[in-house]
Amino acid sequence: MKTYAHCAPLLSGLALLLASTATPAFDLNQAWLAARDYNSDYAASRADLGAGREQAVQGRAQLLPQVALTGSYSHTNPTQPAGQSTYDSSGYGVQLSQPLFDTSKYSAYQKGKIASQQAETAFSAAEQQLIVDIARAYFDVLLAEDTLAATRASKKAFHTQLEQAKTAFELGTATIIDTHEAQAGFDAANAKEIVALNQQEISQNNLRRLTGLDASAIQPLQEQLPPPPAGTLQGWLETATHNSLALRAAEQALQFASQTVTEKRGNQLPVVALNAGYNDNRSNQAGMIPVTRGSSIGVSVSLPLFAGGGINSQIREALAREESARDKLESARRQLREDVRKSWLGVTNGAALVRAQQQLLVSAKSKVDSTKLGKEVGIRTNLDVLQAEQAYYDALTSLATAKYDYLTARLQLGQVAGTLDQQQLQEVNAAVRH
């Protein structure tokens, strides 16, 4: 029996060592790095970027020379008039075409460049969104753990109160009311624990889905939080005007729509192209020249005269889509100003709320201590103690929520302004315990 007792601490330490080796702890930055390699949505955005970059290449290709090699072979067996012999013919040629004036192709080239820029913007937005998503999922796990810890502490306190109330009732120093009040508080805490456990499982699964990491190895926050980012609201509004990815995407959409108008109008203009070629033809047909060779060069011009009204309809459609894109750009500008103000308030008010919740927690703890003392001297009831303790644990959860909301708001402000990067993530990650 002594042998097992002496081995127990050693076995426990070994188990902890094996657990820490199997699942190394990770912080917010490491979670984001893992998501860059694991997250399927981010991988799809990276593939979309590669595809979008090819749009510029394809648009430019339409303005470059087009060279084609042709070849032919045929065997002819004449039937009328009778008596003719069969013969073979073959040939090859090289054809070159170079656009000299083609508004549609030039517009397609411009649209290809814009489409490539749109792909870059979309990928940058996906990168910033990944940072925010990972941070939100990370803090959701921490909040779920804090809520569960507070709920279990509350449950433990209510259980202690319940046992004391039962004992006091048996001794005749308290009424059954105290027992019922403590039992109700304990049952409520038990129900909250079930909800907290469920939320913990959901948040851990979400973080695992995004990063592939075991959420049980997550690192908690330190007590000290980073201060709000420097600058004023007006400064952030100006920064967002120049860097917002949402605004840039709307501007690029308008540029694309304008080029589409130019492209459709170009269908009414002449198309001029330089054409050159070389042909080599051979035939063993009786009475024909066996070999013919020749080259050609020239300029072709084509001008559409009537297309059933289709070109005019396409122009009207393109103009309507351009107007729609212009209105959406203005809407994006207005929404950007609103989002920056909202995010700025989330940061500044969030920092103030954290300080207020910290003070509330101190006050709630003092109230618990004074209420317990009041009960001992007979001026407070068991219900007063239960309510004070519940308020204290609620304050714990509210403080945790305020901290995580504040840190998330810092990242969201950078995202709205279009400046969110790994450096800002590192500033928030500094609040994580290492």
From TrEMBL:
Molecular function per GO: efflux transmembrane transporter activity; porin activity
Keyword Phosphoprotein listed: no
A Pfam family hit: OEP
Residue spans crossing the bilayer: none
Gene3D superfamilies according to UniProt: Outer membrane efflux proteins (OEP)
GO (cellular component) term, any one: efflux pump complex
Keywords: Cell outer membrane, Coiled coil, Membrane, Signal, Transmembrane, Transmembrane beta strand, Transport
Signal peptide: 1-25
Keyword Iron assigned: no
SUPFAM superfamilies the record matches: Outer membrane efflux proteins (OEP)
Compartments, as annotated in UniProt: Cell outer membrane
Regions annotated as coiled coil: 312-342
Family membership: Belongs to the outer membrane factor (OMF) (TC 1.B.17) family.
Protein name from the UniProt record: Outer membrane protein
Organism: Aquitalea magnusonii
